[in-house]
Amino acid sequence: MIIRNLLIRTGDLFVSLVLILLILPLQITLAIILSLVLREYPLFLQDRGLTLGKYRLTRIKFKTIKSSRVSGTRSNNIKEKFLIHGGNLGINRFTDWIRRTGLDELPQLYNVLLGQMNFIGPRPLMVQELLMMNHEYPYYNKKRKISTPNPASSDSGSYSAAVSSALKICSLSIFFMKRRELLELI
CA 162, 82, 32: angle at the middle one, nearest 5? Predict the structure, then answer.
């Protein structure tokens, strides 16, 4: 198990370092363009985690929505926070393209490099999502508490589109955790 974890960490470290070096010019270009388009700092930090209490990290992403637009979406309803639709946030064509292509996720390579995330593993959730999961899907929350401490960097699209997406998150993460438990027995 220790050797396996060491191999995974070494692979994550090597791949993230190589990718960062290869796409650094692209990241710099995107940062400059986004700062011109949004007229603000192009990166944002977002609290994420596997549970509300443990395995928390600050995820780095390119900003695709102006801060002033997001601050107006605050709500006390957990489900409303989870289900924020991009249509009312003033996303322009360029930032929409950045989101659709996943280029806004490139700075997460630094999270992988620092050992806060892995390339493969359960998806780290936003605090609002964790609150909703804790309330709506208690079994899911219990399974995540015993999961790996390093969440994955993969984020296939926007999970905040519908409640059915929350079920997909639960089922995919539990599927991953069950398979990981089987691998640890070997």
Answer: 105
> Residue 48: enclosing H or E segment and its boundaries?
strand 43-49
**Three-state DSSP class for 127?**
helix
Cα distance between residue 10 and residue 101, in whole Å = 27
For 15-74, what is each residue's pLDDT tens digit? 999 999 999 999 999 999 999 999 999 998 988 887 777 778 899 999 988 877 665 545
Provide the strand spans (E) within 56-163.
56-62, 125-126
Provide the percentage of residues in the chain whose pLDDT is more than 90.
32
As given in the structure block, the two tokens for residue 102 are 């996943």
Q: Which amino acid is at 153?
A: S
Q: Kindly report the pTM of this predicted structure.
A: 0.68
Largest CA distance in the chain: 53
pLDDT top residue among 3 and 132? 3
Helix, strand or coil, per DSSP, at residue 25: helix
Q: How many other C-beta atoms lie within 10 A of the C-beta of residue 96?
A: 12
* Cα–Cα distance, 83 to 62 (Å, whole number): 20
Which residue's structure tokens are 């999270």? 111
Q: Residue 184: exposed, middle, or buried by beta-carbon count in 10 A (0-12, 13-18, 19+)?
A: exposed
